[in-house]
Amino acid sequence: MLGQKQAESEAIVANATEAELNLAKDGHDRALEDGGADESSSAFSVKSFLWHGGSAWDAWFSCASNQVAQVLLTLPYSFSQLGMTSGIIFQIFYGLLGSWTAYLISVLYIEYRTRKEKENVSFKNHVIQWFEVLDGLLGPYWKAVGLAFNCTFLLFGSVIQLIACASNIYYINDHLDKRTWTYIFGACCATTVFIPSFHNYRIWSFLGLGMTTYTAWYMAIAALVHGQAEGVTHTGPNKLVLYFTGATNILYTFGGHAVTVEIMHAMWKPQKFKYIYLMATLYVFTLTLPSATAVYWAFGDELLNHSNAFSLLPKNGFRDAAVILMLIHQVSCRRRPPPFFSGHR
């Protein structure tokens, strides 16, 4: 019975999104008929390629690039706190748990949107937020809880990410102190609030995933080429507080579900999202596990005093390229518009 109800809900949402697509295509066809067909068609195709992303692939790129960024550089540090075995186990456990959470969120989203579609509510100029889903299904109390959680997550997450940006660029240019670099990147990141929704992150999500892929494999290869440091030791967990801190950092890697609903809402067929997030998580494993294990194998307990892997890897053009790519990724792909800006357009 539950499966039948979910199928009906997905059908209603699919029909609604298909109607929106047809409406958009009709509008484009009428614009071409008014004149300038060739020029408009060319401009439209380029704009669609770079700007209008709602396919399953767009969602996959958004999920994969949004899961891991600066935290990629601190996972070897977490391994030094947890030990190799616990580090691998926690990554797999939290990744699969995050995928299950995304599946539950997708079911709730479909149910909420189905109810609103039956009430003839249009979402053409509105991006559904997670706290709205809670409000529609559970009531205003849970809406307040969800909104408070989202704002807190975005506030502290933004601070952490900006400090990480300043720490990264400091390895290339130390003429300015880290606080000044934090202000500079804060100003750059603030400009992304002008990007309306995840529909318009197509090119940046694609490039962002390429940047993290390069950085992850650079870390793994550079660590293997460097070899084990002289006298390296792998003590593993020796303090409970370090073990908890390392596990929390890995949880942060796979726990960014505050924007899951926004990614889903940007899809033409959101009912496919429950499979996409799992596929994105499996790809992220190919980045985080090799890089973290290789760097921890090479430097061991030395990482306890170096939370950023860049500080131990040899300084050369490959490392500088990784630093720059991570900074670009941070500014363009990880600074999502907060709920106050992305709710209505």
From TrEMBL:
Keyword Transmembrane helix: yes
Listed GO biological process terms: amino acid transport
Main subcellular location: membrane
Domain Amino acid transporter transmembrane: 52-331
Pfam families reported in the protein's UniProt record: Aa_trans
InterPro entries from the UniProt entry: AA_transpt_TM
Subcellular location: Membrane
Keywords (A to Z) from UniProt: Amino-acid transport, Membrane, Transmembrane, Transmembrane helix, Transport
Any one annotated GO CC term: membrane
Protein name: Amino acid transporter transmembrane domain-containing protein
Source species: Eucalyptus grandis (Flooded gum)
Organism ancestry: Eukaryota, Viridiplantae, Streptophyta, Embryophyta, Tracheophyta
